[in-house]
Structures are given as C-alpha cells and as structure tokens.
Amino acid sequence: MTLLAWCAAFLLDRLLGDPQHWPHPVRWIGALITLSQRAVRRCCHSDTALRVGGGVMWLVVVGASWGVAWGILSLAAAVQPWFGWCVEVWMIYTTLAARCLADMARNVERALRYGSLSDSRKQLSWIVGRDTSQLQPPQITRAVVETVAENTVDGVIAPLFFLLVGGAPLAMAYKAVNTLDSMVGYKHEKYRAIGMVSARLDDVANILPARLSWLLLSIAALLCGNHAREALRIGFRDRRNHSSPNCAWPEGTVAGALGVRLGGPNNYFGERVEKPWIGDERRAIDADDIPRTIRLMWVASTLALALFVLVRYALAGA
User: Residue ranges per domain, the chain?
Assistant: First the structure.
C-alpha cells in the first residue's frame, strides 16, 4: 500500500500539478514562516539575535510541519485505513512540484516564442529570484534551464528521498526546510542573519539528493538522446562552480547534456552577484532548450521514483 501511495501521488502530480485555488500545505507553511519572521524581527535586533531567532524559527516551522503531518496521518488512519491511505497520497502529492515547475517553464517559453519580451520577463520573475527587468532572450532561457535543473532536486528528487527515509511527514518537513530557504535563505542584507540557519540546513538536507541528481540526470540524458557522457563529466567537473554546495550538480549535468553554458553574473535585490560559469558553450542556448530540460527533469524524476521504490521493496524484504 505504501509503494502504491508513492506511485499514485507521483501520477497525480504529473496529471494535476498545483491548481492555483486548491488548498496546499506549502502555502500554509509559507504563512507560518511569514508570521514567525515578523515575531523574530520584533524581538531580535542585532545580527547575533537574528541568527538565534532564525534558528528558533526554523525549529518551529520544520517541527510543526512534521508534527501536523504525522498527526493528520495518524488520525486519518485511525478513522479508517483507506481514508488514511488517501490522505497519505494527497500529502505526498503536495510535496512534489514537477508539473508545476514544467508548466511555469513552458509559460516563459511560450512568451519567448509568441509573446513580448516584457511578458517573458514577467513570467520568469515568478520562478526566479534574480532581477529580470533587463534580461535578453538568451539570458531568460538560461535562467529557466537553471531553475528547472535546480528544482529537479528541490521539487522531486529530494522529497522522494525523504519520503523513503521517513515517510510523508519527513517529506513534508523537507518542504518546510526548502520553503524556509526560498523565503529567507538569501545573502542579501535583509535576510543574511535571520536566514543563515535556514540556508545552511537546506544545503545539508540536499547533499545526497543533489549528488543523486548528477547520476539520474546523466542517465536521463542517455535515454533522451542528449550528451550523456558530457553530462556526467561536466556535472562532476563544475560541481563547485556555485555558492551553494548543491546547485551546480544538477545545473552542470544539464549544461553538459545540452552542450550549453549556464551560470554567470546576475542581479539580486539590486546587487550585482558574480557567479562562475557552468558548462562549455558548444553552441548558443535557445528556447528549444527549455522543453529539452523539462524532458530531462521528467525522466530523471521517474528514475528517482523507480529507484526509491526498489530500495524500499528491498528493505521491506530484508
């Protein structure tokens, strides 16, 4: 039943994505982060105090996410086992974000192909943290490819990994960790202190999933007819070409698979951030690389599900 729940949740994400007006735990987690952040900022004023307060915020948000998920699943199973199974499927489904990511990437692609440059910049601003107001089409495409590559880990591989380790409650706790990082884990002055714990613990949480993505995306490149050997080589070669210890693994692998160059300098919150390049520019990046990256994401995600199902099956039979 557990493995069936995993597969059902994966299929639900593939078919439905994240309908805008449906209730979603990540939105509730985001609201809790906003409230917690306000409380911390009211009580803490120095950088040291904000770091401590940010650590307390992390414990509250992640602990509450795990505890509420565990409580809801336990209560639902006590009411009726099949009801508990349905709730588990729904909960796992909400931790996955592949379809939502693919849809948003395609929105940018459509704007690039058929809309205006301003529309494509606007669509991009909804999925990246960088300043998009001056970006040109190649830079927009590069940003989408980077985002899809990075979020193949955050949105699919890592939730499935923590699902394997600790079930739906731990997968939900991971989503809290990741949401904290996306909301406060910046090096900008406003968030540097309060988001320090969130940023570093998100790095810790993604150590294994990011390195798994290197292998899974390389296999996906082989299955999709891309440059699998280059994906494997460049993913490992450029793994340190990012301020994050994890992001360059999937980005480098996708860059190698497509034969393009990612990374480079960008503007965040009005500040110029110099980043190293990732990959070799064997050709110019273009809008067709967006659907190619989405295809790699879907294949790697399916491989991750198959891998974790096999591991769970093997452990259950041991």
Answer: 2-317
